[in-house]
Amino acid sequence: MRITGLAPTKRGRFALSVDGEYRASLDELTVLEYHLRAGMELEEAALEEVLRVSAERAARDKAMRLLGYRDHTAKELRDKLLRQNDEASADAAVRRMQELGMVDDASYARRLAADLFSLKYYGVRRVRQELRRRGVEEALIEAAVADPPDPREQIEALLAGKLRGVPHDQKGRKKLSDRLAALGYDWDDIRAALDGWVQEDAPEAD
Fold it and tell me: Which candidate, 10, 23, 140, 159, has a CA 20 to 30 Å from the CA of 128?
């Protein structure tokens, strides 16, 4: 097999043609590392290695850029990489990010759970849902929610803050119950908190 073209592209890569047919876009480091040039003869195995190395580098570079914006779980990162990279390269990139400590699902789960409890005032059920949605394993989810805030105190804080101003009638109680359930609280905790609900400045029901 002969390299019949190795032309630079506008994106700073090199368009590789073999035996007159386009094969791939290579990064500059791979071109230099393998001393590639037009007219060079390559065995099929050597060509496959070049393509694999370049593809894995592209996936790693993309992973680094994504992690520069925000933390990702392994699943989130893999799903995004698969939009532009093959499966093997995406998997290799995720493994490398894990080896470097840049992807750590256990740490991610703990931090996100803490934020959802303290900033969003989510209940345990909702926090579990959010972690599952991001691809966190069940064992790591359970570890992350093992010591949650007291749910009734959380509900009382919501009633005094974000959910303040709801009328003291049956319709208002139903509205609050639905909102609190959507936030991930159990019905027993919701019922107990609403039974003791005192809101002196709540508007009068019509």
Answer: 159
Q: Are 73 and 103 in contact (CB under 8 A)?
A: yes
- If you ran DSSP here, which 8-state letter would residue 17 be given? E
CB 16 within 8 A of CB 23: yes
- State pLDDT tens for residues 117-162: 999 999 999 999 999 999 999 999 999 999 999 999 999 999 888 8
CA triple 23-24-27, angle to 5 deg: 145
* DSSP helix/strand/coil, 18: strand
Burial of 64 (0-12, 13-18, 19+ CB in 10 A): middle
CB 77 within 8 A of CB 134: no
